[in-house]
Description:
The structure holds 2 protein chains of 2 kinds.
Chain A: H1 8-34, H2 51-58, H3 61-91, H4 97-104, H5 106-109, H6 112-122, H7 129-136, H8 150-178, H9 182-190, H10 195-223, H11 227-232, H12 244-254, H13 258-297
Helix pairs in contact in A: 1-13, 3-8, 3-10, 8-10, 9-10, 10-13, 12-13
Chain B: H1 7-36, H2 39-42, H3 57-65, H4 69-100, H5 106-116, H6 125-134, H7 142-165, H8 170-177, H9 182-211, H10 214-220, H11 229-234, H12 244-279
Helix pairs in contact in B: 1-12, 3-12, 4-7, 4-9, 7-9, 8-9, 9-12
Amino acid sequence: MTRRFDAFPYLLLLPAALLTLAIVAWPVMETFRLSFTNASIRATEDYVGFQNYERLFSGGFVAIIWRTLLWVTLSVVLKLAMGLFGAVLLNAAVPGRTIFRVLVMPPWIVPIAIGVFMWSWMYNGQFGMISGLLQRWGFLAGPFEFLGYRNSAFLATVVTDVWIGTPLVTLYLLAAMQTVPRELHEAAWVDGASRFYRFRRVTLPLIAPSLATMALLSAIWTFNSFEIIWILTEGGPRNATTTMIIDTYKTAISRFQYGAGAARSATLLILLMLLTGIYLLLLNRMARRARRLEEASA
Amino acid sequence: MIDRYRWWELVLIYAGIAVFLLFLLSPFVEAFMVSLRPLTQVFRAPYRFFTEDMSFQAYKDMWSSVPMLWRYMLNSFLIASGATILALICIVPAAYSFARFSYRGRDALLGVFLVVNMVGAAVLIIPLYRIMQSFGLLNSYGAMIVPGAAFATPAGIFLMRSYFLRIPRELEEAALMDGASRLYTLRRVILPVATPGIVVVAIATFIAAYAQQFLFALTFNSRDAYNPLPMGLYQFFGHERVLWNELMAASLVGVAPVLLVYAFMQKHIVAGLTSGAVKE
């Protein structure tokens, strides 16, 4: 029997497809096209081949790529560590855990910019909380302007990014831990396995796929992070916090060099595509493994 | 029993939770404390947690120091609401299509929405700026609503789809059997049943749209009357003397609505967020 072509399900997709096409898909292609032009605020634009890329990779951009990779890696590792730490604690059957779980989310709920305003006060060297407490406890001899020095500003932006990202990672890992069958824990417990041993040999291997997924997703989101650095330091001091996305923004929006900016965006897009590819492969493998397990148990 | 903890284990767990929550919540606590201090006490070293003359004065003064404050808050709300409505118009039918029909290219299209979700707005800022320019949307609410909705749509589709998948098929089969059209079935049979799911998606989308207005406002809007709260307050940075107490007061008042919504709906929001991510 041949079925008639049915347009209805496609029509239902139309609004979402149009919006996504106009605001995401087309801009992705346009970014690649613009990266081969000298587009600027002027009305004319010419095709310039790989000129933007040649300038990019003979200039300081390579250093910016390395800095971005360091920034993202540091941030993702810390988010996963914090998230795992939080998830393990919130998974413990202790009184009050429901309310603790609620209290984890606010950094992720509030507008990013407003959370960053709060941090920019925390980092204030003269009067801020962190500098003040470190002085009182004797770790600092005098006021320290966290956002004023290259290394401390770099770390400060990472910490704020970790603060915003931790709630979601915690939540995902907690959800993954709750899918670990209780019988496995009980069996290990009956055999006299300690809590730590059970975590290492039962929980950790079973949530490893979720941990890997979260690491990739988190890396992708962190590459896209713009507001935190922009509000805290605008990429300074002396470019210490200029990541690829900050450099793109400065080139394109502050200096109106659309073509040169697009080449930076395009490089970032290629990196994102690479990560997304790995993420999809991982999802695929996880789905296949789940199906095999189902067939085995059926 | 397996869930029984020895006393020192309990101490360790609670200490760990305390450290964890301290990291996540101290900026809020400090912001609140600063909002209670008069400016002379804010700019005071050495640092003290409690200072003299604490009062809610900043919550009164901020309305005159930031004359447009009410307008910024209203704008934030309007932009997030507009983005939510536009996103829902896209999300609900698309999610229904993905959940209920099987057709050529369905899984590939669903994959496209997954991939699209990986690209943030800041990466695409150049073409986005030019699109807004050519559609004459610069310096309008539209420039903040349309991209806000677009970047919230993919995640919403996945969330909504998992909700539709849980509604039994028999429901619409019965309606179709009675001769109802498919559009009528969607409107009169499915949507009423799916309302709780739609509400959760709407709230999650609203929170996301409320959280991510800064970049669009910074780039696409230069008319102060249209600025959302984060952008309105950002302008007060870099002044010679930042009125930190009032800035923190205004920030806290600005985030209170979303925190309240979250507090009431957290169970649904958290369940929705995690169901999609772990099982997909």
